[in-house]
Amino acid sequence: MKNRYIEYIIKNGLNLQQNQIVEIVGSRFLEKFINELKVACLSFGASTVSICYTDSLELLDKINRGYSFYIEKDVMYYKDLISKGFCRIVLHSPFLPSESISWKKQTEYKNCLKQLSFVSQYFMDRCSQKVICSVVNPYWASKVNKTEEELENDIERLVFGIYEAEDSMAFLNRKQIETLWFKNARGTDLKVGLTSNFEFQGKKAVTKKGIIFEPNIPCLEIYTAPKKEKVEGKIYSSRPFYYRGIEYKDLILEFKNGKLCQYKNVREILNLEDSLYYVGEIALAEHLENTIYYSTLLDENADCHLALGMAYPYGITELEDVNISNYHIDIVFGSKDMQVIGQKGEESFVIMDKGKFVYKK
Questions:
Q1: Which of 64, 81, 188, 228 has the fewest CB atoms in 10 Å of its CB?
Q2: Which residues make beta-bridge pairs with 343?
Q3: What whole-number distance in Å separates Cα of residue 152 and Cα of residue 297?
């Protein structure tokens, strides 16, 4: 699977261009995979490949000594990379052991990182390709009671098999839906107002230079940003997730005029920023059985979900109507009995029934 997967990351995900600079971001624990990925990038035409270890001894030393003494050099480094049109591969691998860093040092480091926000904006503005993909490690496999090989096979199934949401997306974009209505037996009853002339987004994206790539691997969802003040009703989360080392499960969220008015088991997240009281994303994905991975990158592909916080602006014309935030927290609430109804004026039609898309073409 590894060679096939690496090739998919580079050719389909990144759509690497000849002589493009690639940055690989990941844990040093994944060094073997990273080196194989680096070699493959060079063989497919990358001019150079740099590696940014998120937990390197060098980085830990910088943080403990005080990152403010190093940030200017990093700012210059990334400005140079941007001027050369670099692209990025981010490796997602949950539950890896981490070094102990004092809360004070963590806070100082994160405050310094704000000076590198222009790098995130570079990718948010689709100036170049950025791909996030999953890599298995033994700690993660153990957490989900699988062998590493079994977990790799699951990822392969999500990437190369199951179904494509693109046909459903094309059909729904022609309908120009005004409202999505989610219902299931657990108690979810949520109406989401959508912006005018929007287009659902899927697995493929396009840079400003016209390069087609896949930001998330895998991707079985279609999504958009709702009108900030047009979310009404209640959801019950259906899959647990981890955020900053804390497990969140059995969430209940109730919205009125777009704002979260009642909630359960989510207070710590809401304390981060007031913008997290509003929804930034609503996504449709078919229900997949037996697929709790404690990884948003995988779990969000297995059921309908919403995100508190930041709205991705793609396919949206009324940007003033969507939520702005520094955070994006996905919460899965789909189920095997989920029904989704689309509404436009007086017209209503079923989009999903029993957790599956009705319209495939």
A1: 64
A2: 179, 348
A3: 14
Same domain, 174 and 100: no
- pLDDT tens digits along 76-101: 999 999 999 999 999 999 999 887 78
Let me know: does 175 contact 343? Beta carbons within 8 Å: no
Q: Tell me 88's DSSP state.
A: E
pTM over cut 0.85? yes
Q: Which residue has the higher pLDDT, 162 or 226?
A: 226
Residue 1 has pLDDT above 60, yes or no: no
188 in the same domain as 109: no
Q: Report d(CA 203, CA 199) in Å as an integer.
A: 13
Structure tokens at 115: 């000076």
Asked if residue 209 is part of any domain, the answer here is no
Query: Is residue 139 helix, strand or coil?
Result: helix
Residue 249 within any structural domain of the chain: yes
Return the CA Rg of the chain.
Answer: 20
Provide the residue range defining the domain that includes 283: 166-201+220-357
Give the Cα separation of 229 and 310 in Å (integer).
14
Q: Which residue has the tokens 């957790």?
A: 355
> Within the chain, how many helices (H) and strands (E) appear?
11, 21
Secondary structure in 3-state letters for 1-52: CHHHHHHHHHHHHHCCCCCCEEEEEECHHHHHHHHHHHHHHHHCCCCEEEEE
Give the closest residue to 283 by CA, choosing from 256, 257, 302. Answer: 302
- From 83, 82, 81, 59, select the one nearest 71 (Cα to Cα): 59
- Tens digits of residue pLDDT in 256-309: 999 999 999 999 999 999 999 999 999 999 999 877 999 999 999 999 999 999
Q: Which two tokens stand for residue 191?
A: 């109406």
For residue 12, what are its two tokens?
């389909």
Total number of domains constituting the chain: 2
Adjacency order of strands within the sheet including 252-256: 259-264, 252-256, 226-236, 189-194, 179-183, 339-344, 347-353, 356-357
Helices 71-83 and 117-124, axial angle in degrees (round to 10)? 20
| pLDDT for the residue numbered 361 | 58
